[in-house]
Amino acid sequence: MTVRVLVDVTAIPQDRGGVGRYLDGVLPALGQLDVDLVLVAQAHDVAGFRTSVPTAQVVSAPALVARRPVRLLWEQTLLPLLARRCGADVVHSPHYTLPLLAGRPVVVTVHDATFFTDPGLHTPTKGRFFRTATRLAGRLAAALVAPSRATRAEVVREAGVDPGKVHVAWHGVDTSVFRPPAPGDRSRVPASLGLTGRYIAFLGTIEPRKNVPALIAGWVQAVRDLDDPPALVLAGGAGWDDRVDAAVAAVPGHLTLLRPGYLPLADLPGLLGGAEVVAYPSLGEGFGLPVLEAMACGATVLTTERLALPEVGGDAVAYCEVDSDSIGRALADLLADPARRSALADRARGRAATFTWERAAQVHLEVYRQAAGSGPWWRRWPGRPAPHAGAGGRPV
Q1: Which among 298, 297, 295, 328 has a CA at the least distance from the CA of 313?
Q2: What confidence tens digit (pLDDT) does each residue in 335-389 have?
Q3: Residues with Cβ < 8 Å from 110, sequence gap 6 or more?
Q4: What angle do CA 381, 384, 385 make, to 5 degrees?
Q5: What's the pLDDT at 375?
C-alpha cells in the first residue's frame, strides 16, 4: 500500500542544525521508497528539497512562517487545510508539535527528553514549551518517532506515553559528506582557521548541556605542560551558555583556543578527521549526531555515557565523566597513546557505517503504514466527543 504523507518541514532553521540535518538525511531516503511524499517548506528550502527529493511534491509555505509564533499559528489553522487538499493519509510533524485538528493520523518526531530530565539545561520558556508539546503529542499522535532507545525510554517514563506508540529510528550519516578527509582538506581546513599544529576539536551549539566550560578546563589540564600543546577548536553556533566566556578568559596565554562559529559543511570532514581528538563531553543527548559524524570522518572521539551517546559510540569511542578532571585525564591518556587513537578511529569508521538514513527511512515508512487509516485522535478515544465539525464533516 502506497501511503500519501504530508511532511511539515517548515521548522528547519536556515543554519541546518538539529531538525534540518535529520530531515535532510531521512527525506531523500524516504523518496526512494514506496511512499507518496508531499513536503511543505519555507521558501528558502523549496528548491533544495525539489533537488534532493525529486519524487516528492514540494509546496511553499507562506513567507510569514519564518517567524515562530506565526508558524505555530499556521500549523494549527492552515496546515490541516493543506492536508485535506492534498489528500494526505498521514501528516508527519517532525519537531515535537502537531496540528490538533489535522483530521487524519499524525506522526510526531521527538528528538530529546532532557526537557524533562535536565530542565536546567534549557531556558525556562523553552523547557515548558517542549515538555507540553511532548506530552500533547504523546496523547494525541498516532505514533511517535524517537532517534534512540534512550530517548524512547525517557519519553515513556517522563511524559507518560504508551510504549507501543514510540518507535526508534536511529539517525544515519551521509558518508558522501562525512568521510575521512582527503589530504588536501586535512591541511586546508586547519590552515583556513590559522592553525599550524595539532588540535582538539569540538562541534556543536555552545549550549549548557554541551558542557563546554568543563571541556575547556579539562583541555587546559591535559595540555598546559606539554612541549607542543594542541589547540582547542570550538566550532558551532554561539548558543546561550554564559559561562563560556569566563572559561575562555581563564585559558593560559601560551595555549590556543579558537571559536570559528559555523563552518561550511564541506569543511567539517577536514576539521573532524584532522583532529587529534574530537571531544564531545555532553551532559546528555537525544542521539548525538556530531559524534556519529566525527566517527564517519575517522576521528578519535571522546564523549560521555549519558543518555543516547553509548548507543552511537559503542566500543568505538573513548568515554569520560562530565567533570573537568575526568575530561582532562581522558584527553591526556588519548594524546599520549597514538596506537589507541588509531584503533578507535578504525573501529569508529566501521561502526558509523552501520547507521544509515536508508534504515531510518524504512522505520518511518513502517510507522506511516501503521498509522494510516487509524483516523484522527478523537476517533481513537472511545467515548470522547469529536471537535465541532463543519460542512463535509471536517472539524472546524
Answers
A1: 295
A2: 999 999 999 999 999 999 999 999 999 999 999 999 998 988 888 765 555 454 3
A3: 96, 134, 137, 144, 145, 146, 151, 155, 166, 286
A4: 130
A5: 87
Q: 280, 290 in Cβ contact below 8 A?
A: yes
* CA dihedral of 123, 124, 126, 132, whole degrees rounded to 10: 150
What per-residue confidence (pLDDT) applies to 382?
55
Pick the CATH number of 3-172+357-393 from 3.40.50.2000, 2.60.120.260, 3.40.309.10, 3.30.70.1150: 3.40.50.2000
* Listed range (4-13, 121-130, 301-310) with the worst mean pLDDT: 121-130
| Nearest to 271, CA basis, from 176, 351, 192 | 192
Residue 185 burial (CB count, 10 A)? 20
Q: Average pLDDT, whole number, for the chain?
A: 92
The domain covering 183-352 belongs, at the CATH homologous superfamily level, to: Glycogen Phosphorylase B; (3.40.50.2000)
For the cut 70, the answer to whether the pLDDT of residue 394 exceeds it is no
Instruction: Say if residues 312 and 292 touch (Cβ distance below 8 Å).
Output: yes
Mean pLDDT of 319-332: 98
In this chain, the answer to whether the domains covering 3-172+357-393 and 183-352 adopt an identical fold is yes
Q: What pTM did the predictor assign?
A: 0.90
Dihedral through CA 364, CA 369, CA 372, CA 378, nearest 10?
-60
Q: With 60 as the cut, is the pLDDT of residue 246 above it?
A: yes
Q: Give the mean pLDDT of 151-172.
A: 96
| DSSP bridge partners of 35 | 3
Q: Where are the domains of the chain?
A: 3-172+357-393, 183-352
DSSP annotation of 322: S
CB neighbour list of residue 370: distance below 8 Å, 6 or more residues apart = 142, 143
The answer to whether 172 and 248 have CB atoms below 8 angstroms apart is: no
Parallel, antiparallel or unpaired: strands 3-8 and 90-93: parallel
Q: Which residue has the cell 534512550?
A: 150
